[in-house]
């Protein structure tokens, strides 16, 4: 059963989610020593990272014991401003004392690997960090919900959404630019302890409503092993 939290607006959504994330990282480190966190791109994911950056509780976390992963990446040259990694570094990561080897970036298109090899490289990196050769048991995996109900780079009716094997896949002809991407699969997402779906703004209202009413959408198909949270603002929740 998923849980819903509705905040007044996008700013409150970002602030509340940042507070929740900082607490969840502390909880994970307290229980297991390190925290594995999966970041999302997109507007709500970006707002959340900015809110963490400006949170007074930010420095209560031992960032050197946080493993950062991405749910998806746009397959673009290193440094491209449309890469989720580049945006995350600018919003937050560059300001944190992270351990570089714990920042698990998906490959860029000019790094010497083609798209399939880049997805395979991420599959290997995930497996190396796991206890069973698949993926780590992510403590928190965040997903921005697109207006069409996509999450990560799994789009409704698109081949990647139907993939049932593997953990990181190459995505071609994405309905949202850029066309080439790397994404975690539904199976990899489902290994997370907590999955948090973030949606703010009127443009997300229909997708949120349909996903929560059982429509066949990626956003409605993801679950955490312990908790599945919908973190919404009033506009995104307006059709519930
Ligand atoms: O392209 C992407 O879009 C989604 C959602 O983005 P939003 O701007 O509509 O919030 C995001 O979840 C994904 O990580 C990203 O690559």
From TrEMBL:
<dbReference type="InterPro" id="IPR037171">
    <property type="entry name" value="NagB/RpiA_transferase-like"/>
</dbReference>
<dbReference type="InterPro" id="IPR005900">
    <property type="entry name" value="6-phosphogluconolactonase_DevB"/>
</dbReference>
<dbReference type="InterPro" id="IPR006148">
    <property type="entry name" value="Glc/Gal-6P_isomerase"/>
</dbReference>
<feature type="domain" description="Glucosamine/galactosamine-6-phosphate isomerase">
    <location>
        <begin position="9"/>
        <end position="230"/>
    </location>
</feature>
<comment type="similarity">
    <text>Belongs to the glucosamine/galactosamine-6-phosphate isomerase family. 6-phosphogluconolactonase subfamily.</text>
</comment>
<dbReference type="InterPro" id="IPR039104">
    <property type="entry name" value="6PGL"/>
</dbReference>
<comment type="function">
    <text>Hydrolysis of 6-phosphogluconolactone to 6-phosphogluconate.</text>
</comment>
<protein>
    <recommendedName>
        <fullName>6-phosphogluconolactonase</fullName>
        <ecNumber>3.1.1.31</ecNumber>
    </recommendedName>
</protein>
<comment type="pathway">
    <text>Carbohydrate degradation; pentose phosphate pathway; D-ribulose 5-phosphate from D-glucose 6-phosphate (oxidative stage): step 2/3.</text>
</comment>
<keyword id="KW-0378">Hydrolase</keyword>
<dbReference type="Pfam" id="PF01182">
    <property type="entry name" value="Glucosamine_iso"/>
</dbReference>
């Amino acid at each position: 059963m998923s849980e819903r939290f509705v905040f007044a607006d996008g700013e409150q959504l970002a602030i509340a989610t940042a507070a929740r994330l900082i607490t969840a990282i502390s909880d994970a480190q307290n229980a297991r020593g390190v925290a594995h966190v999966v970041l999302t791109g997109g507007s709500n994911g970006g707002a959340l990272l900015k809110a963490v950056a400006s949170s007074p509780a930010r420095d209560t976390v031992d960032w050197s014991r946080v493993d950062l992963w991405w749910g998806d990446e746009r397959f673009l040259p290193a440094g491209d401003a449309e890469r989720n990694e580049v945006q995350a570094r600018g919003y937050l990561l560059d300001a944190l004392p992270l351990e570089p080897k714990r920042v698990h970036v998906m490959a860029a298109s000019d790094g010497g690997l083609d798209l399939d090899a880049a997805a395979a490289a991420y599959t290997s990196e995930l497996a190396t960090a796991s206890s069973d050769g698949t993926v780590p048991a992510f403590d928190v995996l965040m997903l921005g919900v697109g207006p069409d109900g996509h999450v990560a780079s799994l789009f409704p009716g698109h081949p990647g959404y139907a993939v049932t094997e593997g953990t990181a896949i190459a995505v071609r002809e994405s309905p949202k630019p850029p066309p080439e991407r790397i994404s975690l699969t539904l199976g990899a997402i489902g290994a997370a302890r907590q999955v948090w779906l973030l949606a703010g703004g009127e443009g997300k209202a229909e997708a949120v409503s349909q996903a929560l009413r059982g429509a066949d959408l990626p956003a409605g198909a993801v679950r955490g092993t312990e908790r599945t949270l919908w973190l919404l603002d009033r506009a995104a929740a307006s059709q519930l």
